[in-house]
Design a protein that fits this description.
This protein is mostly helical and 106 residues long. The chain contains 6 helices and no strands.
Length: 106
Amino acid sequence: MQNFRRTAGRDRLMFDNDLVEQLAEERDVSPQHGGRRRDFLMDCIAKLSEKQRDLIRHAYEGEMTIRQLAEQLHRSPQTIYNRLNLIRRELFECVEDAVRQQGTEQ
C-alpha cells in the first residue's frame, strides 16, 4: 500500500487516502468470489481452440520469451502480442458472462 502511494504520488491523478483504503478493503472482502472467477476462467480456457490454448500455455507457462516464441512460430512478436490480447479479451468476456449468468440464476 505504501509503495502504491509513493509511486502514485508522482502521477497527476491522486486518490483520496480514504478511497484507497475502501478499495483495498472491498478487494479483500470476498476470497470465494475470486475462486468462482478462477473456476469460470478454467471453463472458459477449456472453450478455446487447441491452438489458442497452446499459445496461452507457451506464453504464460513456457520458458521462452515472446520474441523466442514468435521466432519458433515464424511470426512477428507483435502478431503474438495481438493474438494474446484477443484471447485475453475473449476470456475476460467469457468470465464476465458467466458471472452475470450466475448472478441472474440466484
